[in-house]
Amino acid sequence: MERKIISLGRSSLVISLPKHWLTLNELKKGDAVSLAVQRDRSLVIFPSVKKKKEHKEITLHVEIDEKETLTVHRIIGCYLNGYSSIKIMSKKIFSVPQRKAIRNIVRMLYMRIMVSDSKSMHIQTLIDERNASHELAIQRMHLISHSMCQDALNSLRDQDTMLAKAVVSLDDDVDHFSFFLLRLFRDAAQDSILANQLDIDPLDCMDYQTLVYRVERAADYSANIAKQLILLDGSRQEIPRQLLTLLFNAGTEAVNLYSEALTAFFSKNIATSVDIIEQEKKIEKLDRKIASMTFMTKQKNALIVCTICSIRGSIKGIAECAVDIAEIAINRALKVTI
Q: Which CATH number is associated with domain 132-337?
């Protein structure tokens, strides 16, 4: 589609806007539009950011014998796809597990139950994405995730089950941010007005989505380390001190890389990102040493061996999250400089 530049008066040059585009965006004479100059010197025209966003609604029909996990994932899918209002209907009545599961996920997604009876629930979102700061939300999510990683390692080193339980309790807070941010970036990828407000393009949405997944996974890995300690404490068994020290050291290296990766992502530091990728080899070396010591110990206990293997996997997982974030940081930095 091409438009000729025409003269208007002595000094103004104008182009006409396609009628189909005006109709699609419900624009008329006198309405305002926003302009944005892109890095490739192209000009993008957006409908006014003041235009009210349409609230999407959907109705979910829940079968009598439907598993709670299926119901929960259907609600999450609707939320991530931008539905602000979800009506949940049952042919007869919700079972107690179904009702409990729905209420738990509603709380997790920062939604509110507006109307409820034995056969139906009407839930709505509480947050307006247009007023969101995605970078601030990611930073807050990372602060919780990073503190979980550190506290999980400290609880392991000190055999502190109370601290371990506190780590597990924070996992829901990270999930809150994760669901909200994934919904935000999915919406921005489809809504040019929202993307313009957030100052991101579709490639940014992909990078940020991957980042959110990795931050959430790092929190999951730290929660697993804490859960393994709680499980071991319940059986009144302990990991040998020498192995405990090696696990703590490897975990500290992994968490440091994870923290540096987030900094590199926002600063677009390629050199730091490459160094993080290289540093993963050090953690792999520590992991092999832990594995060797675990299986060469004379007194082998199945529970302790399984616990150590699970913790090793989580530490390696945190390091892998750091590497993934570092790789995104490199790609993101190069996108800016090209």
A: 1.20.58.220
